[in-house]
Design goal:
A hairpin with a 3-residue loop joins strand 8 (126-127) and strand 9. It is built from three helices and 22 strands. The protein has two domains: 8-18 and 196-332, Sandwich (Jelly Rolls), CATH 2.60.120; 30-185, Sandwich (Jelly Rolls). Strands 2, 3, 5, 8, 9, 10, 11 and 13 form an eight-stranded antiparallel beta sheet that branches. The chain has helices at 90-93, 112-115, 273-276, and strands at residues 8-17, 40-45, 57-59, 64-71, 74-83, 94-100, 108-111, 126-127, 131-136, 147-152, 156-158, 161-168, 174-185, 197-205, 223-228, 231-241, 256-259, 268-269, 292-299, 310-317, 323-325, 328-332.
């Protein structure tokens, strides 16, 4: 994607998660595998029903494909996708749309690349607790964007049904598209289990829109998530393309999280953009860990490698420290 005459191009996928979070240090669920389990394991996939090797589907340009319409109660535990396309922007043009219990609107609506931590139309490997991408390299695979295996381990509960769709918003047919949807069927779920939500936002920013002086209102902040109701905010992916050297540095914007309508002075306040992603002194090196890291890191051609202008993707998962809200939440930088 080419963006001209701007200082900063930012877009993000944010996650407002819902089922009760696991205990810190127990995100893998290892303590439960020795106990009897009262559920039925199931999978929806693109497997060839004839037993042959045609294990993929296609999604024509401008069309939507329903991957699965699952009947509950159940919990989706794992998603796996791999796809190929001649569209150089397929990571931005292929949208995931998941709807729980016949809701009027999807709870998940996001480009597939941004959802999996890759917001710059190029596949790269990502290693984290919830999102894992294995980039594939071969002579017949065109770069960019490249191809990979996309894995998601966020649990997604549903009481009655779950409808998982993929929309091709591009102008090129998507061929092939492989998928696994691994889920558990339960006799019942607790009454107050929360739904999984993921939304996508983007904004083209210029220095003319910067806050003049000290930021005392958060009115011009970049909004990652703005939601009403109750739940847990468990993280986001943030994708930044800085095309000009910015004297203020894009990562110097403080994170400001306002919960349940509390004023800014009583909010969750941070010390900088890279600090929110548990890094320091900028996002200067490639780094990945279970809960935070850089999922993509490229400097612009001809620019110093350690400069803070280029293309970056970062992720932060609040599994040990989810931000609970009862009425509303506004996550900004």
């Amino acid at each position: 994607m080419k963006v001209h005459i701007i200082a900063l191009f930012v877009f993000t996928t944010s996650f407002a998660f819902t089922t009760s979070p696991a205990r810190a240090g127990d995100w893998s669920g290892l303590s439960s595998i020795m106990m009897p389990q009262d559920y039925q394991s199931a999978r929806a996939s693109s497997a060839d029903p004839t037993g042959g090797n045609k294990d993929s589907l296609s999604i024509p340009a401008g069309k939507t494909l329903c991957l699965a319409n699952l009947q509950g109660p159940g919990i989706i535990k794992h998603l796996w996708f791999t796809l190929g396309s001649e569209d150089p922007a397929y990571l931005s043009n292929i949208y995931l749309k998941f709807t729980w219990d016949s809701a009027d609107t999807p709870a998940v609506e996001s480009p597939i690349g941004h959802f999996f931590g890759l917001g710059h139309n190029e596949v790269d490997s990502v290693i984290s607790a919830f999102i894992v991408v294995s980039a594939s390299k071969a002579g017949y695979i065109k770069y960019p964007p490249g191809r990979g295996a996309f894995n998601c381990y966020f649990p997604m509960p549903f009481y009655k049904n779950a409808r998982l769709e993929v929309e091709n918003k591009g102008t090129v047919d998507l061929v092939p598209f492989f998928f696994h949807i691994d889920y558990k069927l339960h006799k019942s779920l607790p009454e107050k289990v929360r739904y999984f939500h993921a939304c996508y936002r983007e904004k083209k920013h210029t220095v003319d829109g910067d806050v003049k002086g000290n930021n005392l209102t958060a009115e011009k902040n970049y909004v990652i998530l703005d939601a009403e109701g109750g739940g847990h905010y468990v993280g986001c992916t943030l994708h930044v393309a800085a095309y000009k050297k910015d004297g203020g540095k894009w990562y110097e914007g403080d994170d400001m999280i306002m919960v349940d309508g509390k004023p800014l002075k009583e909010s969750i306040l941070g010390t900088g953009g890279e600090d929110y992603f548990n890094m320091a002194w900028g996002a200067r090196v490639w780094f990945q860990s279970p809960y935070f890291g850089t999922s993509y890191h490229r400097w612009n051609p001809g620019e110093p490698e350690m400069a803070q202008y280029g293309r970056f993707s970062l992720y932060r998962w609040h599994l040990p420290d989810p931000v609970a809200f009862k009425k509303s939440i506004r996550v900004t930088i």
